[in-house]
Design a protein that fits this description.
The complex is a heterodimer of chains A (96) and B (469). Chain A is an all-alpha fold and 96 residues long. Chain A has a domain at 41-86. Chain A has helices at 2-21, 29-39, 43-51, 57-85. Chain B is α/β, with parallel strands linked by helices. Helices cover 58% and strands 7% of the residues of chain B. Chain B has helices at residues 3-24, 31-50, 59-78, 84-109, 115-119, 130-157, 171-191, 198-215, 223-245, 248-271, 276-281, 302-311, 321-326, 329-341, 360-367, 378-381, 403-406, 457-468; strands at residues 314-319, 345-350, 375-377, 390-394, 425-430, 450-454. Chain B has a 6-stranded parallel beta sheet. The chains are: A mainly alpha (96), B alpha/beta (469).
Chain lengths: 96, 469
C-alpha cells in the first residue's frame, strides 16, 4: 500500500504544480525558476540519513557529498532569488 | 509524542509553505515574501529531516551544511545579474548530483531499512528490495543527466565552451544506444541489486554521458528551453530520491518543481513555435535557410536619432541578448527616464524567449530599476504597436524578425514575434552589419522605416543621452 500512497501524493502534487505555475506572468519567470530550483534542493532532508550513518563508510561519504551539494542548491537558490526579487520595484512604492 | 510522527506533520507544514510560496511568486508585489515563505518551509523540512532515526552522528552533516552554505551564499552574492542564467544552471546541477548521491547512498543503507523491504520482494541476500533498487536507479539516472546536462549548459551560457549546436551524423543513433544501454543495465541491476554490482556502475556512467549528449546539440538561442527542462529534471530527480528513501516531502516538493519546469518549458517552446522534440533533437543551425534578402539599410547618426526621439510621444524598447552582452540596461533605463521627462510614453516590450533564460530581460531591467509596470509582454504590445513612434531594438534579432510572419521557408517561420516593423520608426542598435548584404536573413534591417544605429549599444545610447543634456 505504501507505494500506492506515495504515488497518490506524486500525482496530486504534479496537478497542483501545474495549477500554481501556469498563472505566473512572464516578468517573474526567472525568479520563479530559481525559486523552484531552490526547492529541488529538498533532497537535503533525505541526505542526512546517509551522512549520519556512521559506521557505514560508503554511505557517509556519499551522504556528506550529497548534503554539501544540496545545501549549495538550497542556500544559493534562495539567496539569489531573493536578490533578484529585491530589484523588482513598483513605480509607486519602492521595494518588495 | 512520537518524534517520527512529529517530523511527518512538519513535512505537511513545509509542503504547505512551498505551495503558498510558489503561489505568491505569481505576482511581483508578493513574490519576495513568497520566496521567504518557501525558504521557511525548507528550513522546517530540513530540521524535521535531522530527526530521522538512523542518524548516528551529526558531525559530517554539520560539516557538509556549513561548507555548502558558504559556497552557495558566496555564489549567490557575487554573481553578476548578467551571469544569472549560468548561475541557475550550476545550482540546478548541484541539486541533480545531490539526488544522484542520495539514490546511490541509499543502496548502502538498505540493509538497515525495513520499511520498504517488507512491501516488495527482497532481492537475494542483499537486503535491497526491487522497489528500492528501481527508484534508486531512477534517482541516479535523472540526477546524473541533470548534473552533466547542467554543467554543459553552464559551459555554453558562460561561453567557456562554444555555444553553437554540436551535431554529428549518427547522433540520434548513438543517443538511442546509450538510452537502450541505460535501460538494459537498469533492468539487470534491479534483478540482482547489490551495491557492488557492475550494472550499477554502468548506469552511473551512462547517465552522466547521456546528460552531455542531450545538451550538446542545442544551440545558444534555445537555451531558455534547456534551462527550464533541466530545472524540471532536478525536481523529478528529487522526487525519485524521495521514493527511494520513502520520504513524502521529497516527493511533494520534487514534483512541484518538476511540474513548474515542464510548464516553463512548454511556454518557451510555444514562444518559438517549435515542439520540444524539435528543440531537443535538431540543432538549429542545421535547418534550411530562408530566402536571401537584398536591399540597402539606412544608417542613422546619434544626432539624428536624438532629433527623432526628441519629437516622439511613444517609445518602446525591445531588448534582446545583445543588451545583456553590452551591459546596456542601465543606460537604457536612463534614456527611458529622460524620454519620460520629455513627455513621452515609454514601455519595454519583452519577448518570452529574449535572452538566455525565461524572463532574463525582465531581471536585467529590474536590476536597472525599471518599474515592472513598464515591462509589457508581446501580446500586449503587438495590438498597439502602430501607435509607437519609435521602437528601439537593442541586441534582439530573431524575436523581431518579420520573416517569421512572411517567409514560409524561413527557419523561424510561424514563431510569434514583436511586430516592431509596424511601428512608425524602428531604430536597430547593432554592432555592425555583416559584410555583404545578401544572406542576412532579417528583412527588418532593410525596411522603409528602419534606421540602423551602428556601434556598441551602450555607447550609442550614452551618445543619445548626451545629446539630450
Amino acid at each position: 500500500m505504501e507505494v500506492v500512497f506515495l504515488t497518490f501524493i506524486l500525482v496530486l502534487s504534479i496537478f497542483l504544480g501545474f495549477e500554481l505555475i501556469s498563472k505566473v506572468p512572464a516578468t517573474l519567470h526567472t525568479p520563479l525558476m530559481s525559486g523552484a530550483n531552490a526547492i529541488s534542493g529538498i533532497t537535503l532532508a533525505g541526505a542526512f540519513l546517509s551522512a549520519g550513518a556512521v559506521g557505514n563508510e560508503a554511505a557517509v561519504i556519499l551522504g556528506t557529498a550529497a548534503v554539501t551539494f544540496a545545501t549549495i542548491n538550497v542556500a544559493g537558490g534562495y539567496l539569489v532569488t531573493d536578490r533578484m526579487l529585491g530589484m523588482f520595484k513598483s513605480k509607486t512604492g519602492g521595494g518588495k | 509524542m512520537n518524534i517520527e510522527l512529529a517530523a511527518n506533520f512538519s513535512y505537511i507544514l513545509s509542503a504547505g509553505l512551498f505551495i503558498f510560496g510558489l503561489k505568491m511568486l505569481g505576482s511581483p508585489a508578493t513574490a519576495r515574501r513568497g520566496n521567504l515563505l518557501s525558504s521557511l518551509g525548507m528550513l522546517i523540512a530540513v530540521v524535521a529531516g535531522l530527526t530521522a532515526s538512523g542518524i548516528v552522528s551529526y558531525e559530517y552533516i554539520i560539516g557538509g551544511v556549513i561548507l555548502g552554505s558558504i559556497i552557495g551564499a558566496l555564489a549567490a552574492r557575487l554573481v553578476a545579474m548578467t551571469s544569472m542564467p549560468e548561475m541557475v544552471a550550476l545550482f540546478n546541477g548541484s541539486g541533480g548530483v545531490a539526488s544522484l548521491l542520495v539514490g546511490w547512498a541509499t543502496l548502502y543503507l538498505a540493509g538497515n531499512d525495513t520499511a520498504t523491504a517488507v512491501l516488495s520482494t527482497v532481492g537475494p541476500a542483499t537486503g535491497i528490495s526491487t522497489f528500492k533498487a528501481f527508484t534508486a536507479v531512477l534517482a541516479i539516472l535523472i540526477g546524473g543527466v541533470t548534473f552533466t546536462g547542467s554543467l554543459i549548459a553552464y559551459g555554453k551560457l558562460s561561453e567557456t565552451i562554444g555555444s553553437a549546436a554540436v551535431v554529428f551524423t549518427g547522433q540520434r543513433l548513438v543517443n538511442s544506444l546509450i538510452l537502450a544501454g541505460l535501460i538494459g543495465s537498469g533492468v539487470m541491476f534491479c534483478q540482482q541489486p547489490a551495491v557492488d554490482s557492475q550494472w550499477l556502475y554502468i548506469v552511473l556512467g551512462l547517465s552522466l554521458v547521456l546528460g552531455v549528449m542531450v545538451v550538446i546539440p542545442i544551440g545558444g538561442a534555445d537555451m531558455p528551453v534547456v534551462i527550464s527542462l533541466l530545472n524540471s529534471y532536478s525536481g523529478i530527480a528529487a522526487c525519485a530520491a524521495g521514493f527511494a528513501i520513502n520520504n513524502n516531502i521529497l516527493i511533494v516538493a520534487g514534483s512541484l518543481v518538476g511540474a513548474a519546469g515542464i510548464i516553463l518549458t512548454n511556454i518557451m517552446c510555444k514562444a518559438m513555435n517549435r515542439s520540444l522534440a524539435n528543440v531537443l533533437f535538431s540543432g538549429f543551425g542545421a535547418v534550411k535557410q530562408g530566402k536571401a534578402i537584398e536591399g540597402e539599410v539606412n544608417p542613422i547618426s546619434v544626432e539624428d536619432a536624438y532629433y527623432i526621439l526628441e519629437a516622439a510621444n511613444n517609445v518602446c524598447f525591445v531588448p534582446g541578448y545583445g543588451m545583456a552582452v553590452a551591459q546596456a540596461q542601465h543606460v537604457v533605463k536612463e534614456l527611458g527616464e529622460i524620454l519620460e521627462e520629455n513627455g513621452c510614453e515609454v514601455s519595454y516590450a519583452i519577448h518570452p524567449v529574449a535572452g538566455r533564460m525565461p524572463g532574463h530581460m525582465n531581471v536585467l531591467l529590474a536590476e536597472a530599476d525599471v518599474p515592472y509596470e513598464q515591462l509589457v509582454e508581446m501580446d500586449d504590445i503587438n495590438p498597439r504597436i502602430e501607435n509607437v513612434d519609435v521602437a528601439i531594438v537593442i541586441g534582439a534579432n530573431d524575436v523581431v524578425n518579420p520573416s517569421a510572419r512572411e517567409d514560409e521557408d524561413s527557419p523561424i517561420w510561424g514563431m510569434p514575434i514583436i511586430n516592431v516593423d509596424q511601428a512608425r520608426t524602428v531604430f536597430i542598435l547593432k554592432r555592425s552589419m555583416a559584410s555583404g548584404f545578401s544572406g542576412v536573413d532579417n528583412p527588418l534591417f532593410f525596411g522603409e522605416n528602419s534606421r540602423m544605429l551602428f556601434g556598441d549599444a551602450k555607447v550609442s545610447i550614452s551618445g543619445v543621452i548626451a545629446e539630450f543634456s
